[in-house]
Amino acid sequence: MQAAKSINDNRYRLQWIDILSKMKEIKLSLEQFIQVYMHYQKVFLQFPFDTSAFIYLIQRMHPSKKKKESPFRIFLRLNRNLQLDRSMFFEQFQWIFSKGIKNQWYDMKDIAELFTWLRSQDQLFSQYFYHYSSNVNTDELWDMFLYLCRLNTINNITQKYLVTILSERIPSVSVELFHRYTKLAKTCLTEIKSESRSLFIELFEKIFDAFIIKRIDYSQYSYRLTRTDCKDLLQVGLEMSSTHRLERPSCLLLVRKILCDIESYHKTNAQKLKCLFENLKNFDENLCQKYAAEKIIDDEWLKDFYITNIQIWSKLDQETYQYLCTNHQNNPWAIYIWSQIVHSSLSNILNNNHIDILSKINDWMKNVKCDIYNPTDIFTIILVNKLFELILMKYSRSIMTLPNIDIIMKFIITMRESTSRRIDVQQINNFINNGLDTIHEILHLKRYTLTIPK
Q1: Domain count across the chain
Q2: Domain that residue 94 falls in
Q3: Tens digit of pLDDT for each residue in 334-384?
Q4: The pTM is what?
Q5: 396 within some domain
Q6: Looking at the domain assignment, is residue 57 inside a domain?
Q7: Contacts made by residues 11-15, CB under 8 angstroms, sequence distance 24+
Q8: Does 67 reside within a domain?
């Protein structure tokens, strides 16, 4: 050093790192080395110890994991003693940190403390958390998330990168493993301070949503989710939520999969309908009572169950239809779903073919033995009411052109007499009166024709 000092040329000026890199063995510990340097610091005023040399020393003399004190505390204390720039130290220490995480040199509590120190510096925190997450498995990553939440150290910066990385990593884990993570999260919720719980729930919701959306929207994952898995996850989604509402997008995805995800290959329309209502029968009845079906069930969900032509309707056999009628248990969701399917199916197949539709459904009602009005037969009442609304009312002025639909007509008249809440009695009265007026006009015309002199 003294020789270098006498040479007034920076090209020949030695640096600490040059000297240290040529030393084959350093028998002192990191702290001992810095202590010796500090003791002779005045000698080196022209050649102060710099950050690059300090980082090199750390790499050569990294403290053992057995040491009780956090290595990061040691490094920062020595960095402060050397009067080195803290930010520059963290910039250059990253590669050692990454190597240390990979080789498991550090305890979680010490890493968490380091993250706490960096949480006010967006760029540094993002870099260090990236190094950490890239070198640990999802179990360790999840444990770190919960640990930081327990410490109550989450701010806008930390939550931004925690949620981003966890939302990328967690959806790839198995459903069984995710269930374990949710159990740990529930335990953590009871352990953190009350004022931090709402934030914790908010973060968990985002991670949960990411898991569900990827699991259901991506075909390579969706098939692995069983109906039981979805029910369990739905319970978690409602419980670990700030609103506990079923309208959450992730919860709606789960409801759709539970009810409408049916292996339709080789299944007839009747079989698919039966599966749909079987799924609904096994769904949580409390949710069906609590939430209005129209707020939850999207028409798009039901498209695979529409009856696309009248011939398919005719193939809806008695056994299947009786199952639908006897197993809905007045579930408001079942009634809504059936009503939407019937309405959309009739609307879609109606194309100046009303005579054929009415005639075939009239025969079908007889074949499946739902031809006699029963106030408890909700599904048939809905069907006949939709026929009335969509077809009969439309052609009420040309009633004489309608086919012989005695079963449907008797059903409608009995519905009117029973004053069913599911029908518009006034509309039925108008329909009947229109028919009577038409008949009266025809009879009047005949009488008029007979009285004309030849």
Answers
A1: 1
A2: 1-106
A3: 999 999 999 999 999 988 788 899 999 999 999 999 999 998 999 999 999
A4: 0.85
A5: no
A6: yes
A7: 14/47, 15/47, 15/50, 15/52, 15/53
A8: yes
